[in-house]
Amino acid sequence: MIKIVKRDQPSRAIFFLTPILAIFLTLVAGGLIFYIIGFKPFEALKFFFIVPIADMYGFSELLLKATPLCLIAIGLSFCFKSNNWNIGAEGQLTFGAIVSGGVALIFYEQEGFYILPIVILAGAIGGMLYASIPAILKTYFNTNEILVSLMLVYVSKLILDYLVVGPWSNPEGFNFPETRQFSDSARLPILFEGLRIHAGIFLALAAVVASWFIFYKTYLGFQMKVSGFSLKTAKYAGYKGKKMIILVFLISGACAGLAGVGEITGPIGQLHREVSPDYGFTAIIVAFLGRLHPIGIIFASLIVAITYLGAETAQIFMQIPKYTGQVFQGMILFFLLASDYLLFFKIKFTGLKK
Amino acid sequence: MNTNLKISNVTKIYPGCVANDNVSLEFNSGKIYALLGENGAGKSTLVKILSGVIIPDEGKIYLNENNLKLNSPLDAKKNDIGMVFQHFNLFETLSVFENLIIDSDEQRKSLREKIDSIMKKYNFSIDLDIPVLNLSAGQKQKVEIIRCLIRNPKVLIMDEPTSVLTEQETSELFLSLKKFSEEGILIIYITHKLKEVMQLCDEVAVMRRGKLVSVSQIKNENIESLANKMVGQNLKTIKKRKTKTSSDQLINITNLNFISEDPFETNLNNINFSVNRGECLGIAGISGNGQSELFQVLSGEILSDKNSIEYNKNYIGDLNPQERREYLMAFSPEDRLEQAAIPQMAIFENVALNNFKSSNFFNNGLINENKIKEHSKKIISDFNVNTDNIELKSQFLSGGNLQKLIIGRELITAPDLLICFNPTWGLDVGAINYIHETLIKINEQNKSIILISTDTDELLKLSDKISVIHKGKLSNIMNADEVTSEKLGILMGGGN
């Protein structure tokens, strides 16, 4: 007999074990899927998870992909911890990229140490501006932030599309949908010759430390948390709950905007149609897989980044579509949510009845 | 014809809790039965099983020797079991008549005649053609009862029916129930109010922690004996010692108004009162008459005109709750789980919600966790909160323990004034006693209380002065020893 028994309180150990369980189940299910479509499961999983990061270049690519995921997920953790469902990070990333790209284009013929900070700042502000829309609509007009932030993603992508095809397209670019190359002063420096990993990783690490500090050590973080759980309680405690909501959206928008800056001023160095392979959406999975904890998010971003790389290798070596990566991301989230059941219930094996 | 309802060995298990543990009971028509128990004792589960809402894991129900299969509320209705729930299931915007015919397939015209004759017979006067939202709580309940009566029920189950009624409406209800019983309807009355059981019922079944602990005749019981059975231990009765009231005024409210933009809130109209040091002012009223708004205005969640609240010779009407705490005011709101505490946060984090300057929870914007934890441990031991783990999320505290934590959090910094709103709502008798004792104690320490409550017994027990709020207006302030619950009932209903 198997019995399901409610726990007296959620298990702390299980809280950190379920992400690992979820990853394990994802691997098992992934192997099964590979087997069903006619591949050898272990070999396929090796192509997916080990081959891509077996050399220095692969490892650098891993960090390159993990950087925006980590940065955005850190920002999102502010929102999610305070129960604000910002799922429009992709839009905030895109808009941040647009604003910082626009600023970089102004300086396209100039060099100077001051350019990069301005470009970075512009990206953060762009993301904040874009995130402030769902925040203000939520606090002052009671709209649902999930819908607003999600729909704004498509708006920002269309704006970007319009700009790179129209007014901002490179005059010498033979009508390719892209802007001029930014000047070197507007580019985040590459860390190692021959690899693509760039200084954006430091932005991500700084965000990790800052979020940990704000959330666990400051009165501000405490107020954000309270406001997120209940505006009524925040009001009763005497906090300015609405301001808190707007603040978490701004922080998360700034992080997404910075991720956008990293994408365009890093290896690419120009604005084009596809600034992000849905990092803004995938970061939602990263945030939850990392249990909204800064350290957890670092690990989660690395793991999820592998699915991006794995999908590419799988496409090359196994001729399967790269969307397999999204299948894996979906499975991770699915199994994580499913195994969260174990937080509140335990399974007891008892002897046969009578 | 006689009706016999038998519950035989009913068990219902939820993960982590046995809601009904092998319960067997037998009821016969002609009598009114009380099903008594604290919150969580399992009485609601049992009546939900009888009304088909919940299917038991084990056990059988027999009506006149027939084994009933109750898989849905519809099955219960078909078998002539009628149920009036604590919370009304009415469509507010539909008319009374439309609400009554909604689940019936009889002809409109014959139904109308039937309803008219029921109303005549039991002396109900309700306009059938006005929308339900215009009715008082007592009238809404009558609509629910009529809805049951249309089907000529053999069994009528009432779940905590008086929680929203005034004293007068309650006695009207009791008259009707007695009449139904005389006509052969078997009545099962669920409550945790002992006085009502003594007044109304013939037999009483007491439940505790899912188990049936006793079945007895009312004539063999009294309030104390029932209370002890319900709680499972002997309770001491507490009484407020009459002290001389001081004339040292602490808070004075003059011409306080609040006009809400929200149609579901009540406007406050020219509120005036004052409270002296060491005094408890009780504010009675039926819920929804402006208590919540009054509490928020007093706590600073709703700001008002600066001069409308004078506190210790300062004008504080425009200060928010945090700023008012600096003046040594403390607040315990009605809603424990959605306002006074955050269930998903740890106990010590909940303690930090109330940030008196003297407690030093936060320095220069940084959390002083040691201080908070130290403070939390003190609250837990001083106020008898039954846990030793301050890292526990507060959702795992029982209602009583959570309320002790909240009251403790508010009181441990020794405020001059505590404003509390329904502090014992939904608690078990033991916890209620503890909270009452605590409130009496702080009065004895020359601290003041404003007690907004819908429980008149509580108000009469704890208050020095009492006023009644009705439709956002406050009655004259009366001395508590000159007031009876009958008089309060009249004022609560809007009479004079």
Word description of this protein:
The complex is a heterodimer of chains A (354) and B (496). Chain A has 354 residues and is mainly alpha-helical. Chain A has a single domain, classed as Orthogonal Bundle (ABC transporter involved in vitamin B12 uptake, BtuC). Chain A contains 14 helices and two strands. Chain A has helices spanning 12-36, 41-49, 56-81, 89-106, 115-141, 145-165, 200-217, 219-229, 231-237, 241-268, 279-289, 294-318, 324-339, 341-344, and strands spanning 2-6, 345-349. In chain A, helix 2 crosses helix 12 and helix 4 runs antiparallel to helix 5. The termini of chain A are close together. Chain B has 496 residues and is of the alpha/beta class. Chain B folds into two domains: 4-231, P-loop containing nucleotide triphosphate hydrolases (Rossmann fold, 3-Layer(aba) Sandwich), CATH 3.40.50.300; 249-492, P-loop containing nucleotide triphosphate hydrolases (Rossmann fold, 3-Layer(aba) Sandwich), CATH 3.40.50. Chain B has 17 helices and 23 strands. In chain B, strands 13, 16, 19, 20, 21, 22 and 23 form a seven-stranded mixed β-sheet that branches. In chain B, strand 9 (203-208) and strand 10 (211-217) form a beta hairpin. Chain B is globular, with a radius of gyration of 24 Å. In chain B, 44% of the residues are buried. Chain A binds chain B through residues 4-10, 216-222, 225-226, 229-230, 232-233, 235-239, 345, and chain B through 14-17, 299-301, 320-325, 331, 333, 335, 338-342, 344-345, 349, 352-355, 362, 365-367, 392-393, 396.
